[in-house]
Structures are given as C-alpha cells and as structure tokens.
Write a structure and sequence with these properties.
homotetramer; about 240 residues; alpha/beta; Rossmann fold; 9-stranded mixed beta sheet; 7 helices; ThuA-like (chains A, B, C, D); Trehalose utilization protein ThuA (chains A, B, C, D); Trehalose_catabolism_ThuA_prok (chains A, B, C, D)
Chain lengths: ~240, ~240, ~240, ~240
C-alpha cells in the first residue's frame, strides 16, 4: 500500500541536536523502517508546496503518518481540511507524539487535545492493556524508553474506541499512549512516543507498534454508504 | 439550573403548517415542558444579535438545547466556535433532530454527521437498548411516533460513548436515535425526533427523554485539569 | 488456520424440514464455504464424546464457530468452562444466532443474553453501521434476508466493543445483529442470522460476514501477560 | 436508598495489624462514611448465615458494596449466583480492591479478572481521566495514597464502559483503577484501593469516590424489558 509520511521538518533544520539524531529527518527515519514492510513509502514536509499534501497525493495515499510540533499553525486551513476529509473518506491516519496538537487531529477529535508535558529525561514504561489488538502484535507486557518527554493526563480526547497502551512516567504521571478512533471511513491510531531530541524512532518496539499501526489503519473494502434523500424500501401506510 | 434553548426559528416564521403546530416556535414548545422541571429556561434564536449566543449568555448556561435545520450555514463561525468551546468547558448540550448537521455538532464530532432522510410520514418506533441509562428513566421498552421524518443509517458519527435508543422506520430503515458523547468537560446527548412539520415535541415520551437528557447533561463538579508544562511530582533520576 | 465448527446437530436429525435445507447439517453448510478461505475446517457436534470439544481439539483450534439452539443445557459444565477458558486464552469465537443462549456465550458475557423472538417469516434487513470494520468488508449498505426468525431488542448483552450491524424486522423490531467483544486474549463476534428452518447460511452476504468474522477473530501474536506477585521495576522508597 | 456493605471480615479477626486499623471491620469503616449521605446502611459478612445475602436482603438492597480477599472460594455458588442475578435485575454493585477476584465480579465480567500485585508500600497516585463523570465529582486532577498494595496491568477485564481513574505506582506499574460496567439492569463500579493493612478507607478522596460510586450505581426507573416470544407489532406480509 501507499504510505505517506508527513513531517514538519523544522527542528531537524534548526537544531543540530535533532539533526544529529535524525540526519534524514524524522520522516526519513520513519520511512526507513516502514519500507521494510513492502509498502510504497513517500514523504512530504511543511515547507513543500501545499505542504506536499495536494489532493492527488492524498487520493493515492492509503495511510498517512503525521509528525508535527512547533509549526502546527503554519499548516493552512485548506490543507488541514483536505487531510481531514480524506481521512473521513477512508485514508488511515497514524498520529505521532506532538501531532496530538495538529490541526488535523484536533479537527477529527473535536476536543482540545491538550495534555501535560515535561522535557526532563523521564523514563517511560509503556504497558499494554489490550492483548488482543493487532497493533500490540509482537510486543511484550511493556517496553521501556530510557528517556523521553513526559506526556501526562488529562489527555483531552474523546474516550477512544480502543485503548491499547498506557504509559508510566518516572516523574509520577500516566498517559493513554496508544489509542484508536474510527471517524467516517477512516481509522486513526494515536501513538505517544517520539520527542525530537531523543532517538525514540530507532527503538525496536516503537517501530513495531508504528508498523502495526500503519497496517491496522489501512482501509478495508467496506460499505459505501449513501446519504441524503432516500426512497422507502418498504411500503409506507397512508396516515 | 439554567437551560438555554436555541432555535433557528425560520420554519415557524415562513411556513404556516409549522407555526400552526408550534405557534410559539419550537423553542417555545421545548421551554414549556422543560420549565416544569424547575429549571430557569431561556431561549435564543438565529436572528437575534450574535444569534443570542453571546459569551456572557453561554457562561451562564448549564445546558444548551439546540434545534436547527435549514440555516446551519448562517450561524457564524465565531458563534459556533464559542458554543463548541463552552461545551468543552463544561456546558451540557442536547442536540435535537436536524441539528445533527449544525456547525456546533459537526465540530464536536469531527465527522460529516450525514445520514439518510425522507419526509414521507413514516411511523417511527424508538426502542430502548440501555435500560440502565438515566436518560431512559420513565420510558417503556419502546415508544412510537405516528408520523415522522425518517433518518436512516449510516449516521456518520463517531461510535457513541453510550447508545440508548434505536429507531425502526416503517419504510425499512434503522437509526441510532439516542446517543451520548463526552467531549472535554461537556456532555452531549443527541436525540433524533423532531421534524418541524410534526407535533413531535408534544409527545409525552419525547418530552420525558429530553427532560432526562437535560438533567443528564448538566455538569458535575469534576476535576479541573491543568494542561501544559508540568513539574515532576517524583524525583527523576539523572541519566 | 484451524477452524472448528460446532453444531448442536439435533434439528437436522429430528426435523426433515431442516435436514432438507441442511442435508449435511448446519455445520456442513458452514464448513463448505469456510473451506474456500483455505482454512483447515473441522466440525464437532453435541452427541460426540465430550461434544467433540476435548482439550486437545480446542488447543489446536484458532477459531471456533458455534451454533446451538434447543439443547444448550446438554452441554456439560465442564465442556462449557473448557471452551470459555480457551477463548480467554486466545481462541477466536464466532457465535451464531441462537447460540446467544449457549452456556459459553452467557459465561463470557456475564449477562442473561435474552432477547425477543418470533418465527413468522419476517423479512430482515441488516444495516451496516461501521463501514471501517473488516467484518463488513465486501458488504453493501445493507443486505436483506427474505424470511428469518425475528430477534428483537432488548438484547441483554454488555455494550459491545464494536457494533457493526443493526437489523430491521418487518414486524416492527430492531436488533444489534453484529457485535464484537474482546475477552481476555480472545476475540468474539456475535452474528444474528441463521434460524434452522431457513436457508440463511447459503445467503452470500451472510457467508461473507461469517468468513470475515472468522478471519477477524483469529488471534494475533499479542503480549503474553503475567499475573500474580510482581517484583518492583523501580525502586520503592522507604516509608 | 438501602446500601448493603458486604465484607469477608476475616483479616480483621485474624490479624491485629488489620483490626487495629479497622476495629469495626472494613465494613464498619465503609458504613461510617456512607451513612453520612443519608442512606440506610447495613452490613453483612461471610460467616453469617447464607453470608448475610439472603434473597429478601438482596431484594431490599439498592446498592451492594463488596470487599473480599482471602476467602472468595468460601462464598457459595448459590450466594454468588443470587447476587449476580440481583445485579442483573438492577441492584448497583461497587466492587472494591481485592474483590476483583470475587466470584460475583468474575461471573459478571466473564473474564479471569487477574492482575499483578505487590505488597511493598508503593506510593499510589490516582489520576482522573474522565472529568465529566459524576464519580469524579469533588476530586482533583489526582490524589495520592502514601502506601498501598500495588495492582498492575494487565487487568484482565472486558474493556470498561467508562474509564475514570488510572493509577501510577512507585514501583513502575499502571492500573485502570476506576471503571464502570453496565450489565443487564445493573450498574457496576470497580474501584481499586483498599488493601486491608493500610488505612485507605479513611482517605478523604477514597471516601468521596466510593460515595459517588454508590450514588451513581443506584438504579433509575428504566424500561422493564420483556423477553421471549413476541407478537408482531406491524403486519408481516405473506411470503
């Protein structure tokens, strides 16, 4: 399938500490391991024309992976609406880390999507709470990330359709770190880890979860619902 | 508590068939029976200044009941955003019938909120599927509305937090007619019946459900969550 | 994968009207189309030793499909507990029609699982309400069964994890006809149609849904959780 | 309303460390603060005749609060079934701490209800994740218990209908500590804290949550569903 990885791609250009970790950008690191699954993986970034999110690109995309952080507001309303609509039309969406605050995710959730955060080298331990979920395939009871940004509850999202992972943070917080949401014809997976100053996307379990998430988010050939005025199927009595 | 009933109030002014049924407007009919619960009930309509939805009005409102149909697009973005934000801040919202397509509901749901419809005097039978829910208090196994507009699946909403009522329609369709959604600090109840050309809001069971819905949607004194940068509660080890 | 179809297999032996429709038994009809997916399909019936549900059989089963009706009580407690435990350990379970009242399903749900029913040649129209679900793959907006037993709400089950299909019945009822439940490591799909006196299991859409359900219910290689006394992972301060 | 508190009442009789904390038994401590809400509070214990759970007692009970730990297996099948059935008939149930392993809770959940545990004076921090829920009324973002037994994921329960609290434990685990489940006509609230060797039930926030839980679990006058053979409401065509 066609996987499009969208990255804001600003930190990497402005902060050597980030580009040292992700010399090809976060999108490059994500693309590297997603390619291993046989997907056709392409990337797009904020500073491209229309952010690399033209209609014809989205129309060809099965699953979009989104990473953004400091420039959410630079994504145009038009592009954000176009992506949202494409998700509702059936494109899968994997929302990573700080993309919780992206226009696209907020529009799809309808809530503020805010949370607590802290950059203090917290150890994070991500516990699985749904052993049946295909996104948890190949994962143990939990996995650890030695140092990460903390995200803490309350995470202002709708109650997820499925809750897969919960994070424990060294500094005392918890977080719903892996959650799914169905919206329209689209499947959305939010996954917490991935602050730009840590090598999180090289973590094997993190990669496994994202690979699973991309596969899970792919559209199946479901019913094509028609909306609007509908003729009766059964006879309606005269009243 | 303070209940604000918002009505588009156009059909009643333009169509005698509607004003014959609702001489004081749909908002007037809703206000009549909601007052019986001891609430302080006020009304607001589209053509008032800022649609009667000024910030100070919303700030004083515990639960907002919304009916709109043909003029959703005339509600300004500003007003719709203000109402949405107030719901996220804790105001309850009862969304009636064609308000499924209101800007406020669509923003809160994040989906298209579309459905099938037909104006053909379908008989509607509304079945309860959650006998524990306070919104179903005082209702039987089902209740019937002799003639109503049909709304049919697929109803393009997120999977509701709770599904309370399912409708059967004479013409062959079904519909998730009573459903709840929590968003931010706000509680939302969608209830299907109430096409303007039928006397649905005089139906005793319909009134009972709306009265229950208003009570249910009222904010409780829940946790006030803080967001943003957070100091650690526990000591974080040096790494 | 290994699919085991369990059938009570009494109606077919006692009632020619049923055996005319299902000369190889309902299990035979189910096996026929499930084999087309490349599964290794075997069958078992009530009157076999241990109902054909010995531990070693269940241990080799990936997904169990269950049909029962008039002899639920003849399934021994031991066998029902064994099947339940195997589901919790990860075997998928597809529960068909009157198996809503089977010991296994009731034990897994924890509720009465009762419903309304009527054998009166109702026309049934099954509407999809979740277009994203893999179990709805290949299905249209709805499909019809010309004549079926009616099952009506209230269906006394826990709120399903996912609601996929709703039925409309000619006689005036609705029903949650396709629903999923995760229990332990097992995935459960309940699907309503299939009264023994109708040729429902030859219906193409019914077959598609069951085939999808079997695939969906298969266990993924999820986390193997350990329970019981657990050593601390982090240092606990002296208090 | 009538609140019945059931306590195993063995630790208090056998272990002075427990009876020092709860000289009137855990049930006594629970009764003390629940009485403040104006309920008629009674208690029952394992060693009473029929465990104090005779049919006529249960029939008069609106909400049952259950604490048990070391003697779950001494509760007779008959009593456990009777309580389960009464919950399905509409009695509320508040399940505390180690009652996760009670026969009643396991029967109602249908799963193993197992978890990780450790008695090591972990600090527990209980975070609210649903600010709209009446059970969280009067609670802050989180509250702490200085020392408690640890319960860790995976907690082998069905996905709750509502998730209200998540626990952080000093030793590195997380837990879904406050969760609701609707079963039949009954509402069930599971709340984690309360190991017998700690004075947890004197903790103000713990008391607030339990008081809220009892109120929430009370039955509303919902639909009385009829089951079984049902005459058609609409005319069924001859086929």
């Amino acid at each position: 399938m066609n996987v499009l990885i969208w990255n804001e791609y600003r930190h990497e250009k402005e902060n050597p500490a980030v580009s040292d970790i992700y010399p090809e950008g976060i999108h490059g690191a994500l693309a590297d391991f997603l390619k291993k699954d046989g997907h056709t993986v392409t990337t797009a970034t904020l500073d491209e024309e229309e952010h690399g999110l033209k209609k014809e690109v989205l129309d060809q995309t099965d699953v979009l992976v989104w990473w953004g952080h400091k420039a959410h507001e630079e994504v145009t309303e038009e592009a954000a609406e176009r992506v949202k609509q494409r998700v509702l039309d059936g494109m899968g969406l994997v929302v990573l880390h700080s993309a919780h605050f992206s226009k696209v995710f907020r529009k799809l959730m309808g809530t503020g999507c805010d949370l607590k955060w802290r950059e203090a080298d917290d150890r994070e331990r991500i516990w699985n709470v749904d052993p049946t979920h295909p996104i948890a395939e190949g994962i143990g009871q939990y996995f650890e990330i030695e140092k990460e940004e903390m995200y803490g509850e309350h995470f202002d999202i709708p109650a997820p359709d499925e809750l897969i992972f919960l994070s424990w943070f060294e500094g005392g917080e918890v977080f719903r770190s892996g959650a799914t949401f169905k919206r329209g014809n689209g499947k959305i997976f939010y996954f917490r880890p991935g602050h730009e100053t840590y090598p999180t996307y090289y973590h094997e379990d993190v990669q496994t979860v994202i690979r699973n998430g991309v596969r899970w988010a792919q559209n199946t050939n479901g019913p094509k619902h028609q909306y609007g005025n509908a003729a009766p199927i059964e006879r309606i009595s005269k009243k």
